[in-house]
Amino acid sequence: MNNSTHHTKIKQLLDQIEPLLPATHQHLLSELSAEIEQLVTFLPQASLTGEYLAKPEFDNSSGCYRRGQESIFYCPHCYESQQDLIATQRINSRLRVCPQCRSSIKPAK
After folding, report:
1. How far apart are CA 99 and CA 1, in angstroms?
2. Counting runs of H as helices and runs of E as strands, what totals does the chain give?
3. What integer is the mean pLDDT of 5-29?
4. How far, in Å, CA of 15 to CA of 7, rounded?
5. Among 32, 36, 55, 62, which residue is least crowded by beta carbons within 10 Å?
């Protein structure tokens, strides 16, 4: 099955579910459909660059893990202890913090 076939099948399933849901929950289908549309546009681009499936590597200049040339920096503590890719948040030009484990991350020396 190619991506177009999967996309068509998902749309058919959503159409089948729609009449079964009460009106108060119809917004969930539209939100789900919007998320699927984003994935359909994101995944082919990511797979072309290979970054979506690339194994994270440690980046000394940030002290974090990165996949390929992504602009997302992942917490080294969460990745090393739980294999969990948690995006860090920048605090200042040299410091990042993990929103999950609350670790402060500085560039490696």
Report:
1. 38
2. 3, 5
3. 86
4. 12
5. 55
In this structure, the answer to whether residues 62 and 100 fall within a common structural domain is yes
Kindly state the percentage of the chain with pLDDT values over 90: 37
Q: How far from 39 is each of 3, 51, 69, CA to CA, in Å?
A: 11, 15, 20
Whole-angstrom distance, CA of residue 56 vs CA of residue 64: 9
| Residue of 49, 38, 53, 39 lying closest to 85 (CA atoms) | 53
Q: What tens digit of pLDDT does each residue of 64-99 get?
A: 999 887 889 999 999 999 988 999 999 988 899 999
Strand order in the sheet with 104-105: 89-90, 96-97, 104-105
Number of domains making up the chain: 2
Q: Which of 94, 67, 100, 85 is nearest to 76 (CA)?
A: 85
d(CA 99, CA 8): 37
